[in-house]
Structure prediction request, 539 residues.
Amino acid sequence: MKNLRNLMILLVALAVSQSAMAWSLWGHHISAYIAEKHLTPEAKEKCQHYLKHNLPHYSAWQDYWRHSDPFKEISYWHSSYVNKKFDVIGYKENETRDAAYQVARITKEMSKGKYKNMSDSLVAVNLKLLIHMVGDMHCPSHIVYTKDFGMPGYSIKVKGKKVGRHSFWDRSPQYMHPKWKADRFVKAYDTYTPKEIKKICKGDAYKWSVQNANNILKTGNYWERGAEFTKLSKEQRKQIDETLHEQLAFAGYRLASTLNKIFSK
Amino acid sequence: MKEEISMRKIVMIISASILMIGEALAFNAFGHQAIAALADKYLTDNAKKEVKTILKSDMVKVSTWLNTLRKNPELAYTKDWHITTLNANGKSTTMAENDGVVALEKAIAVLRDRTNQSDSLVQASLRTVIHLVGDLHCISHIRIEGNDATKGFNYKSWNELTAEGKGFYCSKTYDASWYKLWESRFAGRYNFFTPQYYGDDIDIFANEKKSEYEKGTPRFWVENVGEDVVRALETFQPGAVVPVQMSERQEPVHNRCMAKAAYRLAALLNEIFQ
Prediction:
């Protein structure tokens, strides 16, 4: 019955979409690729069993399927919404419409061996959602601050073309390193020590969301509104790259820790 | 006489290729590279050694070589090698000189008779086999007599239709191509990784169906892909409005065709070079 109820949450819910995009495919690939390198052998084996593919294969699955009738509700699960008190409140204060809520829910429902009571297809869908949502909630444009926060829109131009804050951060891996491939990104970003990784992964999805909200706040001061990306100073580009480094690596580590926890013996 | 003409053509290819190596790779290069990478994983040690000796390179690097030839006017006829035509019943009976399956059979015959052939001809033939086994597993490279849709068409893509007939999220339909659906829509998502990584990702039949997929001849293989073509055309037709999710549902079909190509290429080369 519980399985059925979980499946119903995914399949029956209907809603009107908000047009939030996600990390670009690159961003999702990078975080999932980093996660794959930090899975325990048990978690890796289980993920392969249920997904049949590598983690990056499904890292953008939630974007591809969000417009399908049965999955419309998952359109609301790409971002985390934070108010001035740094509470995670969900889209229009609906707590279930929040990536942090959904990551915490799925983790809880699957941990301690409970995934074994689910159908294989439900486990697979849950894994696909986790892979995407943990990535998304670390994208600077996917922490949505309430209006009282006063977070500026800070658009930017890329080769003369105006790009909003949201689109910029979604595509920032391509903008910053257009010639890099997955292995190069991992070499540059997967640089934290085991001790640091343990600290990064401490807590649950809510705590991660609040940490992201704090960390990303500084991005509002990286450039003047309407600045040209190609003319940013070395220091400004370094700031952007450091944020990318942190957010993509943290996403990868936390995804791995989530999956390791779910499939721990 | 016919054999002499074919041999002359292949020798011309070798000469032209020397001039053309280094040109931009053709469309769907990454898909070919991934197939070659996965096939390489399943080569026997002996086959691997022979392949390396003949190619003086590796399978991944030469997997798109055949695409570079068609730009040479003298070799323009090779563009037809990338496609095969089945009869109206889905059977491969063609003997047309430049049909893909015929070109593949000729190249295989050269490899089997390699001790009596020049090194350059054997090398060109191996490169041809590596590419064509891939191409002939691409759904948009299979044509069926009497079915004009298999020659390629545009359809309209739309995010899933609601009960009211309005698009969800996407307000307009957009033109999408049957050809690109199979050539690049899915493989294009993974060129961020190495061909080996993508090859491993599609290698999901190794424990169950690999040995079944490896069986048969090139003609059986293209007939097998032809069955997927017929099934896909139940959804995709010229001008049809197709929800984008229906396109997404083709990814497993696309991946299975790639995996079959890799398993079959490896099995063929293992048999030739045993």
